[in-house]
Write a structure and sequence with these properties.
By secondary structure, the chain is α+β, with helices and mostly antiparallel strands. The protein has one domain. The chain is built from one helix and three strands. It has one helix at about 45-60; strands at about 10, 15, 20. The chain has a three-stranded antiparallel beta sheet, with no helix packed on it. The radius of gyration is 19 Å and the shape is elongated. The relative contact order is 0.10.
Amino acid sequence: MAGSWGCPHEANDLCSKVDNRPCDPGMKGCVLHGRFVFANDDKNQRLRQKQAREEEAANRPPSPPDPEAW
């Protein structure tokens, strides 16, 4: 992978974290997967799912306290 950023898992353009496959930032298994927005929208699917879950949880009304928990 060329550029100014260097991944600690990349060696000789291979990813040691993902079975020595060619380094493809954002691929499934990559430490960047689902954490950052990529120009290639195919790599943003997991991030979009995570954002939808967080939005759903934020919009969900709080559940009443369980009286038996006291």
